[in-house]
Amino acid sequence: MHLLSPCAAMNDWSHMLKANRADVARYYTTMQIQTASRAKAVCMLHERCMHFIALGEQEQDKQRQYLDKAQNIIAQLQAALIVDDHVSRSLLFLYDFCYMLLEKGGNNEIDSARELFATLTATFNTLIRQLP
Q: What dihedral do alpha carbons 27, 128, 88, 112 form, nearest 10°?
């Protein structure tokens, strides 16, 4: 029978933890999403969309991939929106406008979409903090 010294066992455990950090982060994110309220989920979608827009601005070689991911999130936000008053209708138009800007893909359009989505994200985060 081969026993590891306490130091060797600790190093082995440390190596396993490092290797599994990505899995742990993925699990943590999954749990956040699954346990979030609808309002918090909407905020998380806005933040993730902002993340993909920023990546699209930074990484020119993968720009279209990141902008497509942002557009997919916008499409989900549009699909989940219950349009029954002028506020929700206006929000639908803002989502559609951002989607169109990202579709064009020019630097000015991406910058405008990022600014608009930053405002929406900040607004939703402010609103969620005021919920009981």
A: -70
